[in-house]
Amino acid sequence: MVFQSYALYPHLNVRDNLAFGLRLRKADDATIAARIKEASDMLGLAPLLDRLPKELSGGQRQRVAMGRAIVRRANLYLFDEPLSNLDAALRADVRVDIRKLHTKLGATSLYVTHDQTEAMTLADTLWVLNKGRVEQKGAPLDVYERPQTKFVASFLGSPRINLVSAALKRDGNSWIATSKGLSVHLSSDRVRDAKEGASVILGMRPHDLRVTKSTADAFATLHVDVIEALGSEAFAYGTLEGGTPFIARIEPDLARITKIGDALHLSISGDRVHLFDQTTERALDA
Amino acid sequence: MKRIESLLSHLLLVLAVIFAVYPVLWLVTLALSPTSSQARAVILPIPDSLSLGNMKLLVGGGTPGGVALFLRQLGNSIIVSTATAIVSVVVALPASYALARMRFVGKNASVRTLLATQMFPAVASAVPLYLLLETLHLLDSRAGLVLVYATTSVPFAIFQLRGAIESIPIELEEAAMVDGASRFVAFVRVVLPVARPQIAVTALFAFMSAWNEFVLAATLLSRKEAFTLPVVLQGYVGEHSAAWGVFAAGAVFVSLPVMAFFYFVQRQLIEGLASGGVKG
């Protein structure tokens, strides 16, 4: 068990913190020393063994907390939001450490987090819980690409998925979803037993949107309020014709020349549009 | 401006120190003056000549068998105070743990009852305690006195230690239990060491309250051999004569160990061990 608050024994140095559980189980000194060496080598704790917890940084404390779990050689490891007390840079480092450790140990780990990056990067199987109920489980990318509920869709992905209320219309053999200032052609595999005129929630991830020159390909026009340029990518925040707030990922080069108030024509591939029932909030292809 | 502020605050501090130290200075002067000298009203109490005469009288140097009696009385004080400290902590620790960590029927009621006992002045219970000890044949005994002192120091100790235990994150115990400890082992191996500074303070308080207590001791003890030091001291200031010099010597003698102890452990008393175990 690795606690969010580390829960190191403040009166014991790192070595004794690691040895605590083994001593309670009456392990012999040689075993204890060997396990401590193994764990401290794995986590880079060797130079810290004689320090008290209060003499360690947050990241070091968290590594000791993991070390304390490792020496137990448990079959199941529980991580309770272990990174939430670390600053962003350290969090990324320790996250990689945890992933390596998990691979090395080969034991099942149950990892609880609110951080979707941790969830996506660490999990073999991802369980999304909402108010104590499992909303969806599966491989992280499957869950990301095929969210089965509106909650899952909005929980995973940053910036957040665009959600717009719309009505379904039949267009020959395929379907169109329309709303004020928006009309999208849908991929038929996303729409299963739908009715003409049914009200749905459209989900479109900012990363799936493309900016086009011609209005013919566009499903909507975005009026830009804010541009967030992150270097490797950029996001345009604004509203559609009907006043619906919307976010689109754009190329950094485009971000350079786009100004507030500009109109961007957006297109999206029909199979990237997620559809949820307005009342049950479940995916129509679920 | 900063300078003036600093100067003013230091001036105030110096005044406060003088105010606090002045009576002590008087006491020390009286104690170290020659036995024959009389207490005089002077502004600056500096003795004309130094003498250990009063000290010698105090420890019984003036009477046959006096030294042995004094040592016995000193022993009474030490034993009674130490025992009170130990009993208080030993009884209060499990009680305070239960009040801090467990849920049970009557928890709030028992806390309130404990609090209520603290509202009564100790003297109010002197007569009932006397009658109780008489029934138990514990008058004039150290055990009786410890019992009486514990009745007042245990509730106080429970309050102090409950606060101390509540300030220890429950995760520490949970971690210990995940590591394979029972609740009791977690208490002994984690809670006790982490709460050590507060336990020490609690024990010290109990020790000092017993070491300085006079009214109950004077009520419950009648044999000279059973006296504790405060009762002995009072004997020097009688209705017809007052050996202020010896009394002062006794007062200095009684305060010195406590003062010295505080001086040496003040750092440990303040330092909280609990820092660093959890986030922050």
Task: Explain how this protein is built.
The complex is a heterodimer of chains A (286) and B (280). By secondary structure, chain A is an alpha+beta fold. Chain A has helices at residues 14-24, 29-43, 58-70, 88-105, 116-122, 140-145, 150-155, 252-257; strands spanning 76-80, 108-112, 126-130, 133-138, 162-171, 174-179, 182-186, 199-204, 210-212, 220-229, 234-239, 245-250, 263-267, 274-277. In chain A, the strands form four sheets. Chain A has a five-stranded antiparallel sheet. In chain A, strands 9-13-10-11-12 form a five-stranded antiparallel sheet. Chain A has a two-stranded parallel ribbon with strand order 1-2. In chain A, helix 4 (88-105) links the parallel strand 1 (76-80) and strand 2 (108-112). The model of chain A has no long low-confidence stretch (mean pLDDT 90). Chain B is globular and about 70 Å long. The longest helix of chain B is centred in the first third of the chain and has 36 residues, at 66-101. Chain B starts with a helix and ends in a 10-residue tail after the last helix. Chain A binds chain B through residues 1, 3-11, 20-21, 24-25, 52-56, 58, 61, 68, 72, 85, and chain B through 169, 171-172, 174-176, 178-181, 185, 189-190, 193-194, 196, 273-279.
> What's the total helix number of chain A?
8
Number of strands of chain B: 0
Major β-sheet of chain A, in short?
A: 5 strands, antiparallel
Dominant shape of chain A: elongated
Helix vs. strand class of chain A? alpha+beta
**What string gives the helices and strands of chain B in order?**
HHHHHHHHHHHH
Largest interface: A-B, 24 and 23 residues
Percent range for β-strand residues of chain A? 25-35%
CATH topology of the domain at 67-240 in chain B: MetI-like fold
Largest sheet of chain B: none
CATH class of the domain at 67-240 in chain B: Mainly Alpha
Number of helices of chain B: 12
- First CA to last CA of chain A: what distance? 35 Å
Return Rg of chain B in Å.
Answer: 23 Å
Q: Output mean pLDDT of chain A.
A: 90
Oligomeric state of the chains present here: heterodimer
